[in-house]
Amino acid sequence: MVAPAKAEVADPATKAAIDQISAGIAALRSAGLSPTGCRDAATMMGQIEQLSRRLHACQIDVLADTDARDLQTEDLAMSAKIMMRHRAKLSSGEATARNNVMRCLRDLPEMQRTYRRGLIAEPNMRRIANAWCNERIRAKLIESESQILERALTLNHPHFCQFMTGWVRLADEDGARRDDETTHDKRKASMVENFDRGFTFEGQCGSLQGAMMREIWSRFTQAEFELDWAAAIEKHGEGNVTAAMLERTDAQRRMDALAAIFDQAASMPPGSIGPQFVLNVVMDHTTYERQLTRLAGGLVLPDDPNRADYQCRTLDGTPLNPAEVAAASLLGHVRRIVVDSAGVVINMGRKSRLFSGPAAIAAKIGSDTCYWPGCWVRASQCQVDHLHQFNPTDGSEGGGTDQKNAGPLCAKHNRLKQAKGFSTYRDDGGRWRVLRPDGTEIDP
Length: 444
Known about the structure:
Order of helices and strands: HHHHHHHHHHEEHHEHEHHEEHEE
Helix content: 40-55%
Strand order of the largest sheet: 1-2
Radius of gyration: 26 Å
Strand content: 5-15%
Structural class: mainly alpha
Shape: globular
């Protein structure tokens, strides 16, 4: 089979630029893509990622110009999006996502300039475009372009999604509340027997109910993991075990954990109370007061979507419906915690060497994941780390046992941090900073 002749771009300057980029990629591969070490790998990843984003912005610009001039009609394509989907062999979902970014950037010139420079991560840009598609909040999003851009540049994707979820909720409170109520009203679950005699589970529920169920499920899943890990140590020896040696996959452990939940429930006598699981929820004071006022039938004025203190989430960062949380708080327990302007929780009581109870919860509220750069282990699964180590000589040097000197750190990073000579601190803005043994900082 003979390949069709390659079409050439008509404009000589554009063709020459494309040829230069192609030659540059070939030269890059010829030079080699083997970093000399950890820092060189991080630098190479960052620079190549930025090039990729700039090229992606060029794709969006070509789509925008084609759409603006209806160039696709010559081939009877129904839209520029469909033409791109066909020419680039994209899925409908991918084509729609690019088209939404293109339409969104027309209204956001500052965002567009920054996007073309390759400074906005593609998933963050798509999350902004997704919010732009909500016509009820589009005008507010355009007004808040600078504030949203700042977050898009500084937050990793999970945290940016958490921010945008809160922003959309505040900008469209009525719509968000209706969506939450619809999701809760449509809660359902099914267990269907398949033709091979197996079963398939399916279900959906509201945010608070789902967060509580996931917390329980996560704890049971962790117990199954610990069983597999202990069995692997017994078989291969301490210090020799890797995840690949475990008997079950993550998916299999989750299923076995779900079965264990059913087994435990079935073993409980009717009417008895089983083990109590606590779901810690973080909600800012303003949001809590507004929801209580709404529950009492009072007048609630529109909120400011750009206020920086909005929070309604689990410790792990899962966004929750504020109305559900406020209503549940009337039947549960409420703990008032005071934070300073940098978001650091103020000491909740006398100091102690080990963090436990309220002090441990307070130390984790400042971050929903392990604070180590690039680590996404959820806060509820982390240990509480002293940012500055306790000095047993006099018990004071290096920082005391309080929340300003504490943060959530996963077991692996907590174990390796001191052993490898890394140090950590929180800056005046409340952000965690991690320094290598030579004093240089790991990019946050």
